[in-house]
Amino acid sequence: MLDDSTEDWLANxxxxxxxxxxxxxxxxxxxxxxxxxxxxxxxxxxYSGEAYCVKCKAKREFEGDVVVNDKGTKMAKGKCHxxxxxxxxxxxxx
Length: 94
Ligand SMILES: [Zn+2]
Description:
With 94 residues, the protein is α+β, with helices and mostly antiparallel strands. 17% of the residues lie in helices and 37% in strands. The protein has one helix at residues 4-19; strands spanning 45-53, 58-68, 73-79, 86-93. Strands 1-2-3-4 form a four-stranded antiparallel sheet, with no helix packed on it. The protein starts with a helix and ends with a strand. It binds zinc ion. Zinc ion binds next to loops.
């Protein structure tokens, strides 16, 4: 339980830290991108090639967008031109 004087001391300490940007701790590594970043924002390039369609149970030629997921894995996303199923092809680390 904090009494009033302890809270004042804390407030002062915070003010002092805020007024001295030179003595700040080294900046931490930036956090993982927030989930508000949509896949569309991360489309960087196009991909065309083959991917396995789980519905057709066959390899299909497709053209799609290269996206990077939250784990930093590059993936090509496209559609099977036969059945319309979304195709994913993992391209590796971004
Ligand atoms: Zn298909």
